Records
---
Amino acid sequence: MKAPRFLYVRVASLVEALEVLAEYGDEASVLAGGQSLMPTLNMRLSSPKVLVDINRIDDLKGISLDGNMVRVGALSRHADVMTSPIVVEHLPLIAQAYPFVAHAAVRNRGTFGGSVALADPASEMPACVLALNATLVLDSKAGGRRNVAASDYFKGLYETERRDDELLIEARIPIKAAGEVSAFGELSRRHGDFALAGVAMHGTVANGVITGLRPVYFGSEDRPVLGVATAAAVEGKGATEETFAAVNVALGNDLDPLSNFHADAATRLQLARVLTKRALTSMVNGGGVV
Amino acid sequence: MTELKERHEITLTVNGETVTRTVEARQHLVDFLRNELQLTGSHLGCEHGVCGACTVRLDGEIVRGCLTLAVQADGAAVETIEGVTETGEIADLQETFVERNALQCGFCTPGMLLTAAELLNAGKPATRAEIRTHLSGNYCRCTGYHAIVDAIETTNNKRLGTK
Ligand SMILES: Cc1cc2nc3c(=O)[nH]c(=O)nc-3n(C[C@H](O)[C@H](O)[C@H](O)COP(=O)(O)OP(=O)(O)OC[C@H]3O[C@@H](n4cnc5c(N)ncnc54)[C@H](O)[C@@H]3O)c2cc1C
Ligand code: FES
Ligand code: FES
């Protein structure tokens, strides 16, 4: 179908973008890569009055190493983040997850910030920023800049801490420290489709023992979920059958998956258990995609 | 900042030629190419990003033409299947598609060719699994993909001189 009518403005700077958002608030939609927004317009699931095209704000693009964190500008394209040497070296979890995000042509256009701003519950990047304890930077004309921890950012189905007049500017993601390991696993019907179940995990491994694990589940509920009980069950343990048994119980407490026509709750919980076992096994062997 | 309005004048190059038009903001790039410029090689299957029939190049990279607004292409360089056919850039691939029966109805073919061209341009060996992954965003309802993968694999190997 065709998109409904709207007014379009292409802003040249952050200041201009914040001006327009301050004026139009919830009547405006930010247009980043358009890879999620345009389908909803074409299907007439949304009809904003104003589209604010931020694609030419160069300040919002780019990936840089800043002390012990990596700054990923909101407008960095998926394809650029995926292949960035900084990301590959310092944020292995994100490098592991990216091949699962959509398809080549969608990654050329879609943005890291758009993914995080949208907060699709089956999406990979929201889960990764939560697993890596990232800080998200928001900006507005009225309130100025503020930092929000990823753990406070995701509120519900497509609901986040971001106000309508705010723009997501960048993510600040702690780099992998010595001894830290990541693992990522996802099950979907077709490569690049949204996950039926997925886990992104990060933690410390020494002599086969895992500590400080942050396992985040996506494609499960209305937002990415940190497996608190699962982390406790793994703390100080190795990847053994005993740990897996404890994890299977813990996951039942952590997750309450949604059922839909793609998969029901019991299937999703089972898939999460399978993925967790694989991921933990991978963690003690250096991590990677499972 | 452009003016905040519904109709915008845009100037872009399409297959190397400069064009200027006034477009409605809501018009996507493929409707612009098909309806304003009569370039009907770019197809519309789903119009919501899933099938890849609308694939075009924007500033050298393949994108979904149905998820890009024409107004966003202001100042950009757009290339379509007509353009890359004319330059001969993928003549070998097109030849091999015919040889291998990699198209039946042809609806997906322009998108497939442009997507495959990106892989070929990387100039690296690619396994069949890697080719399939790269094509994962393009649907074909006729061929079952096997022949398409054959054609791309053959062309890539030929270009790399490995077969
Ligand atoms: C066929 C297909 C398959 C896909 N598969 C996957 C997948 O497997 N995994 C996955 O994660 N995604 C997938 N996607 C979605 C894709 O990753 C999108 O690029 C992403 O979800 C949104 O990023 P965008 O830049 O395209 O944002 P847009 O579509 O432009 O915007 C999305 C939303 O975020 C808002 N927004 C965007 N940027 C900002 C900002 N800086 N500040 C505030 N608000 C902002 C917009 O207003 C809009 O509401 C798929 C898309 C398609 C078409
Ligand atoms: S028409 Fe654009 S992806 Fe299907
Ligand atoms: S040849 Fe008919 S859809 Fe591919």
---
Amino acid sequence: MSTPTAVASSSKLDSKCPSGPLAERWQKHKFDLKLVNPANRRKFHVLVVGTGLAGASAASSLAELGYSVSAFCIQDSPRRAHSIAAQGGINAAKNCQNDGDSVHRLFYDTIKGGDFRARESNVHRLAEVSVNIIDQCVALGVPFAREYGGLLANRSFGGAQVSRTFYARGQTGQQLLLGAYSGLMRQVGEGKVNLYARHEMLDLVVIDGIARGIVCRNLITGEIKSYAGDAVLLCTGGYGNVFYLSTNAKACNVTAAWRAHKRGAVFANPCYTQIHPTCIPVSGSHQSKLTLMSESLRNDGRVWVPKVGDETRTPDQVPDEARDYYLERKYPSFGNLSPRDISSRAAKQVCDEGRGVGGSKMSVYLDFRDAIVRDGVDAIRARYGNLFQMYERITGEDPYRVPMRIYPAVHYTMGGVWVDYNLESTVPGLFVLGEANFSDHGANRLGASALMQGLADGYFVIPYTIASHLAGRKFGKVTAEHPEFRRVEQEVRERIERLRNAGGKRSPDSFHRELGLLMWDKCGMARNAGGLRQAIDCVRELREQYWQDVKIPGDAANLNNALEHAGRVADFFELAELMCMDALDRNESCGGHFREEFQTPDGEAKRDDANYCYAGAWEVDASSSSLAWKLLKEPLVFENVKLAERSYK
Amino acid sequence: MSSSHDTHAAHDAATSHGAHAEKKSMRLMLHVWRQRDPSAEGKFVTYKLDDVSPDMSFLEMLDVLNERLIAGGDEAIAFDHDCREGICGACSLTINGQPHGFESETTTCQIHMRRFEDGQTIYIEPFRANAFPVVKDLVVDRGAFDRIIAAGGFITARAGSAPDANALPVPQVAADAAMDAAACIGCGACVAACKNASAMLFVSAKVSHLALLPQGQAERNSRVLAMVEQMDKEGFGNCTNESECEAACPKGISVSNIARLNREYLRALASSD
Ligand SMILES: Cc1cc2nc3c(=O)[nH]c(=O)nc-3n(C[C@H](O)[C@H](O)[C@H](O)COP(=O)(O)OP(=O)(O)OC[C@H]3O[C@@H](n4cnc5c(N)ncnc54)[C@H](O)[C@@H]3O)c2cc1C
Ligand code: SF4
Ligand code: FES
């Protein structure tokens, strides 16, 4: 492994990471941060966009501190944010199992899991506060699984050799979100948070270089309206739906982050996409989304394909010696619990070799036969009953008898808006939390760490760091009457009218599907320079066509799902180009970014620390007449871990 | 469910991302509720589909119809949905008179077309209840549920002040029972299924979840009183023990929670004065 050379850092990208011993940095930073006088807090109006785990926890915590808060979400209720769908669990370094876990180990696992492409300081802070998250959630009434004695139970998740994942059956995200949501609704009930459900942020308003508000569309009435504030928090989730098919909920989108990007916020590592290894395979061209089978299934399920491609026997008739348990074979110490990127690529590899199963040969088996023999069918039902039921509903197959068939699918996006240690973007006053930022997972996220990060950001980081802006900078009050709000509102209206008046023939959905296929093909699990260049050309061409040929019946002054979708697809088109550019720039393989040109002889990702140990942050080039970007680099410095080959063998 | 060759072969027609060999498609006659806005008058509009794959989900079937409508210049049918895996509680269709259709413990988005017959007629309406006004087509306003939670469906716990989670052991049975109740997805099918449009199942699920946990004790009385008061304000009807709610509930929330709610309410009344 080569040693990193100094990457010239951009002055725009000051990470503001504290110095000193790693374990003391957050404490020190908290002490150094200014405080907002309690009596002044209610004078500050904070706009929180998004009410998933990150947004609900942030909005409720800030309201609790006394700030005046407005919260916005697309769904009819904050309780329906995409976080609700997380199944498996949430990590925390509580070492409840006495199995050698510690804050440092969670820190190390996360850095390594991210293939050494995340900031040490951020990741350590995340590991530190993880402990408090579980306490906070329990206090809110989250019914985590318990052991007989009443103590918290844990399970193991991919990429870790300790058992540190807390869970509530297969509905961990639901229970965590309902906890955060109940805290948020309490503040709504007390009049401390104004809640705007079915409101979509369509633009960011920047005045004198500071984020001062947002422009939203009321999704019921179509009204375009501005909201002014003293800080804007984007908690708007990930952009996996750029691929059309993903495990994300249908409303997940990049619009808020993208609009902020177009207004100056730098966007980092867009090419880092997580492909989840255990999803239900595509069943046909009508497919509207993909369903994840929780990774926890890999605790007991064994992944295999037949040794030969022309195996004709049904799976139960294939004897062990004719099966290739390829994860156990290739990664003996992690086996079926190997990290997601590695497991996904391994599945792609065996399918590319022609050894996949199912009619299309584009899936692999996840087999519970041995676990059922070992623990009994009741034990397996107790552990995974609802997941098995979900699988059977969708596929019509009974996984107690026939092995599940799984294939990787787009699941999570590590990239996002670039933020510093305070979670502030390059636009002062604009903070970004949860999956929407790029911060903590490097090039690959470990299972059960997204819920942890969202809640860490909202409950335990932003309540402190927002003061760096509110108390640390001088800025006057503005209202939504300010001419800049009027100007941006006008732009938003014009954009909507342009889409509506394109007068074309194709639905937004049909374009979205086409874009998704292209991205999956060229910028999915494996990428190469030729394919990426081609994809960039195709995306541009398709985007051009989109604005000419999209068709949106219905009017703008009413609920109009096609119109909502159209705006989001337009932004996905621009993001798609940047993802390909970022993937093309990164001449190495790391985590979720696998460039075919850069692999070891046995097909493992080959990092290039000498040249690519940086976060790639893209800034819109305002001097260009067409959409163009400049690449800024934030060098990643590792003082506490040794850059090593990420081996799970 | 059988794992016969049939289902297996059927499923194997699938491919990854894209082209696939279509198998026997179904024909359907749909009567869909269309209503421009809350004040407009609504009516059923009939659509015929003759290319429905049995592997489609119910919502994918509507997607296909919507694509067809858009292509023909008509406005798509509005319906709520998001996760499409039975957990967000957004989807809310009354199918042939039953909220979330006829399959037990299944949300609208989890229904697959293989459960219908070729040639079948299907009526699709929004969830009906006075407290859930129609917004457009199949979309209703369930904001009343949020307001009930805001009134009392929480435990007051400030970030930063929580004690160690293991300091307060929760017996496994209590955790499990709380989890059973906490599984409610707030979809409102219970209200739509009830002839009185009562919200008792929804409210009782939240009251039970929190009352069963040691953390929920401090606000046990004030919570139930506030939630019931808000429920009444929202215009939901009274419970007359028909149990239609339980039958419609996609998450198997039991009516025994309603009995607990009644006990909790009486207990709180008794101790409040
Ligand atoms: C199926 C599935 C299972 C998962 N399981 C796990 C797991 O077991 N463990 C784990 O750690 N992670 C898991 N994850 C990942 C994790 O769920 C997400 O990363 C996380 O919940 C994101 O939370 P968030 O608060 O950042 O965003 P979200 O929950 O996505 O919330 C986004 C919010 O932003 C709003 N919004 C978006 N755009 C706008 C706009 N323009 N205007 C207004 N509002 C807007 C939305 O309405 C919503 O309220 C899973 C993900 C999936 C897809
Ligand atoms: S109790 Fe059942 S039917 Fe009623 S809202 Fe909850 S999940 Fe839906
Ligand atoms: S769409 Fe989420 S429960 Fe049906």
